[in-house]
């Protein structure tokens, strides 16, 4: 199983939806709350090639994108193979 990391903020409906998708697939993930944490937010932005919105989802060092991106991958059957590692 792949090492999944998701950067989030509280009260973010897109973060909730991304967590719901991953949890529904039985994926364990590390969640990193960036709220009020400038250094962690800067790390996320660097890893996400300049993207500043949350969530940002990574499998290992591979950036999958945000909520819409992972749902789009799932809709065409490409998310499960990535998550499987």
Automatic annotation (TrEMBL):
InterPro entries: GLR_AS, Glutaredoxin, Glutaredoxin_subgr, GRX_bact, Thioredoxin-like_sf. Keywords: Cytoplasm, Disulfide bond, Electron transport, Redox-active center, Transport. The keyword Electron transport applies. PROSITE patterns: GLUTAREDOXIN_1, GLUTAREDOXIN_2. The keyword Repeat does not apply. Residues 4-63 form the Glutaredoxin domain. Belongs to the glutaredoxin family. Has a glutathione-disulfide oxidoreductase activity in the presence of NADPH and glutathione reductase. Reduces low molecular weight disulfides and proteins. This is Glutaredoxin. It comes from Flaviflagellibacter deserti.
